[in-house]
Design a protein that fits this description.
Layout (H helix, E strand, L loop, with lengths): L1 E10 L2 E11 L15 H8 L11 E4 L19 H8 L1 H12 L3 H13 L5 H11 L16 H8 L7
């Protein structure tokens, strides 16, 4: 289904692959593992033709009828902090916090605050910090922009889950 032969690829002069070759047969399930920054995401982007490879003698071939599927592993690189991204991941909490700023009906506002209290929304940042620390982020990292992290680090906080409960 997929064949990679003699792939050479470097990022900013740093080689990620030298004469790399691989074969994946139809029906196989394959996972890429490795330390952050070793080229896992880059390899997938090369296979998907999202980035160009100076091919030379190299080739990446996918069978004509092959269907490849994957889930994006990382959060987009933006100016948003990782703490903001994790807090926004709890969509209900985020929506209710936004609604609390604009709601004028006292009854509806009371319902919003009751739900926020039930979900312990006021301690979400503390829970987010605990999750991020458990994933290897330092306290200084919490307020850094997502674009400052490698794809591997951005992938880590994608899986923080719902913290507003």
């Amino acid at each position: 289904m997929l064949s990679i032969t003699d792939l050479d690829y470097a990022v900013q002069g740093r080689p990620l692959f030298r004469k790399a070759s691989a074969f994946i047969a139809s029906g196989w399930k394959v996972g890429l593992i490795g330390r952050n920054g070793t080229g896992k995401s880059t390899l997938l982007r090369l296979i998907r033709e999202e980035i160009e490879s100076p091919m030379g003698d190299a080739s990446i071939r996918i069978n004509k009828n092959a269907r490849l599927g994957w889930v994006a592993q990382e959060v987009e690189a933006t100016d948003e902090t990782i703490m903001d991204v994790v807090l926004a991941a709890d969509q209900e909490r985020h929506r209710l916090m936004q609604d609390s700023l604009t709601e004028t009906d006292p009854n509806k506002l009371g319902e919003i605050y009751e739900r926020l209290t039930d979900m312990d929304a006021w301690n979400a940042d503390t829970r987010a910090a605990i999750v991020l620390a458990g994933l290897g982020f330092s306290q200084d990292d919490f307020h850094r922009a997502t674009k400052e992290f490698s794809g591997g680090w951005r992938m880590r906080y994608r899986y923080c889950g719902r913290i507003g409960q």
